[in-house]
Design goal:
single chain; alpha/beta; Purple Acid Phosphatase, chain A, domain 2; six-stranded mixed β-sheet; 16 strands; binds 2-acetamido-2-deoxy-beta-D-glucopyranose; PAP14/16/28/29; Calcineurin-like_PHP
Length: 385
């Protein structure tokens, strides 16, 4: 029943000394004065990057922590996901990690506080002192779906609470919303570069930009990393018109002459991914190793792709969601890329791995490849040079 449920839930489903500078909007989105410029908190926030002029990001996609905690196989999946991340972090020693959504499977978490599972998922990165940022996927704040089997003769199982010492409160069925998850992460973690986006984009939450700077001059941007919330879970799977407008204004403001390359992260592929998806295998110009399912795209296109496609500074979009796809294909002047299923949680048994992105300053390039749990590397592609 477990595997079946997981299939069903799917279908409804950055050298350098870098300072991450978050331009966060307060309230309205047009006026320069409305931007509060946050130089991230304390000096500990300054990233001390390798002096060889490169910045490496590991992308952890679709970890799906916390599935079926009441069974034997559920907790083992999480242990396996810990191992995948640890192996890849030790092999690649990235400067930064992006958690690309579906960090947890909330619809499968009979707990009052899903942040406990969220913490588990970020712990391999935190343990190595590597900073990270997270975005939401469609499973992170989904509401608990009571398994019908719990109402048969076998009854409701004695499930394991993530923190049984803290009493009953940690065993509940209340669900944990996006804002709670992000607040808990930010409050407890000085290494977190996640930002709660502007209020007017609610209910979408993970909308923000981080600056990657030159090693010589922290004020000189080398690249911008944009994060967008593609919805799902507590609301439709979409990047709203308001988010598209937010991106347009923000990018035109901080990068008016299109000089600084921009790369974009969100969870659910947009409909444009369907247009470029390779048929039967993977052929040039696409690069990748698995093409095992149809693109499960967002429900609607509300304008973000038009804006991205019209900005020559946008080099690539990275999404997760489809565990059986790991390709990059060109679309207009940019690349649309899938990450690689990293977690043992979630549907599919394709070998686990992580997409790696490397930005090099001189000469400038953005390269990407996939690093597998067994250590081998494949599907290297130059996304910009
Ligand atoms: C830069 O140095 C880091 C570690 O110090 C290493 O992981 C990375 O591969 C190097 N990059 C290049 C392009 O030499
Ligand atoms: C939920 O867990 C997080 C992290 O473990 C903690 O910081 C927070 O206080 C908890 N919230 C509640 C309501 O228990
Ligand atoms: C595309 O960009 C050009 C130049 O920046 C601008 O004039 C044009 O209005 C844009 N088109 C759309 C559809 O945004």
């Amino acid at each position: 029943m477990m595997k079946e449920r997981r299939t069903i839930s799917f279908t409804v489903l950055f050298s350098l000394l870098t300072i991450a500078i978050a331009y966060q909007e307060a309230g309205n989105h047009d006026d320069e004065e409305e931007y509060s410029f946050i130089l991230q908190k304390t000096p500990e926030k300054y990233l001390q990057l390798s002096s060889n002029g490169s910045f490496k990001i590991a992308v952890f996609a679709d970890l799906h922590y916390g599935e079926n905690a009441w069974t034997d196989w559920g907790p083992i999946q999480d242990v396996n996901s810990d191992r995948v991340m640890s192996t890849i972090l030790d092999k690649e020693t990235p400067d930064f990690v992006v958690y690309l959504g579906d960090v947890i499977t909330a619809n499968n978490l009979p707990t009052a506080n899903a942040s406990l599972y969220w913490e588990k998922a970020i712990s391999p990165t935190r343990a190595r002192g590597i900073p990270w940022a997270t975005i939401f996927g469609n499973h992170d704040d989904a509401s608990f779906e009571w398994p019908i089997e719990w109402f048969s003769a076998t009854g409701i199982p004695e499930y394991q609470c993530p923190s049984p010492t803290n009493g009953d409160e940690h065993c509940g069925f209340r669900g944990t919303h996006r804002l709670e998850l992000i607040n808990n992460e930010i409050e407890r973690n000085t290494l977190s570069y996640s930002i709660k986006g502007p209020d007017h984009l609610w209910p979408s939450v993970s909308n923000y930009v981080l600056q990657v700077s030159s090693p010589e001059n922290p004020k000189q941007p080398i690249a911008y990393l944009y994060f967008l919330d593609s919805g799902g879970g507590s609301y439709p799977e979409v990047i709203s018109s308001a988010q598209a407008t937010w991106f347009k204004h923000k990018s035109e403001k901080i990068n008016p002459d299109l000089r600084v390359p921009e790369i974009i992260f969100w969870h659910i592929p947009s409909k444009a991914y369907k247009k470029v998806a390779p048929k039967f295998g993977i052929h040039k110009p696409c690069v990748g190793s698995i093409n095992k399912e149809k693109v499960a795209a967002q429900q609607a296109e509300m304008g973000i792709m038009k804006i991205l496609g019209n900005r020559s500074s946008v080099k690539a979009v990275f999404t997760g969601h489809n565990h059986g796809l790991d390709w990059c294909c060109p679309y207009k002047k940019l690349w649309l890329c899938f990450a690689r299923h990293t977690g043992y949680g979630g549907y599919g048994n394709w070998p686990r791995g992580a997409r790696i992105i490397e930005i090099t300053q001189q000469p400038f390039s953005i390269k990407s490849w996939i690093r597998m749990e067994d250590g081998h590397k494949h599907s290297e592609v130059v996304l910009s040079s």
